[in-house]
């Protein structure tokens, strides 16, 4: 019977999915599916104490996220998905490592609406791009507090823009949730494996 340790072993060599081939992705998907069948939290959206918090991405099949690693002179750093259940908000943060003092941050925030015990509709609303130093970025929860306190950041800190909610929406389903691991599937068929920070 496969467990979390087997999934962690399966994804470890692939740098969050960047190095995974199509065959690797198939094999990992099989391990993910077996673990999802053993989900200890059948109604994950009701388990707000488990869901709430900052989650670090361990593996994904999302080429949109992994494509950030193809930016010239930059490497994809840590990726976080931070959930704030009280405000029904999701924050996605991708750290981009660059030359000294030029490390960046890509951030998008969205509002979510539960539509079942496991699925939420997601509507993206805001994006922020900038240098980590100019944004005074230290860690996810500190940066989220800054976003929540400021409707719009000044231009000298970064590019803060509104996202058209009608064009940028989808859904996310939580298929496995325990105290430190979450697996989700998105409307484009992507898999996300995350560990609580």
Structure description:
The chain is of the alpha+beta class. It has a single domain, classed as Lipocalin (Beta Barrel), CATH 2.40.128.280. It has six helices and nine strands. A hairpin with a 4-residue loop joins strand 4 (104-114) and strand 5 (119-131). Helix 1 runs antiparallel to helix 2 (22-36). The longest helix has 15 residues, at 22-36. The two termini are 27 Å apart. The model has no long low-confidence stretch (mean pLDDT 94).
Concise overview:
The chain is α+β, with helices and mostly antiparallel strands and 197 residues long. It is 23% helix and 39% strand.
Rg, alpha carbons: 17 Å
Q: Tally the helices.
A: 6
Question: What's the CATH C level?
Answer: Mainly Beta
Assembly classification: single chain
CATH architecture: Beta Barrel
Q: Which structural class matches the secondary elements?
A: alpha+beta
- Show unreliable segments: none
Mean pLDDT, nearest integer? 94
| CATH level 3 topology | Lipocalin
The ordered H/E elements are: HHHEHEEEEHHEEEE
End-to-end separation in angstroms reads 27 Å
Topology, number of strands: 9
How much strand content do the residues show?
35-45%
| Count of all domains | 1
What share of residues is helical? 10-25%
Descriptive labels:
single chain, globular, 8-stranded antiparallel β-barrel, Lipocalin, 197 residues, alpha+beta
Indicate the topology:
Blueprint: H1 4-11, H2 22-36, H3 48-51, E1 53-60, H4 63-66, E2 75-84, E3 89-97, E4 104-114, E5 119-131, H5 132-135, H6 140-149, E6 159-162, E7 169-177, E8 181-186, E9 191-196
Antiparallel strand pairs: 1-2, 1-9, 2-3, 3-4, 4-5, 5-6, 5-7, 7-8, 8-9
Helix pairs in contact: 1-2
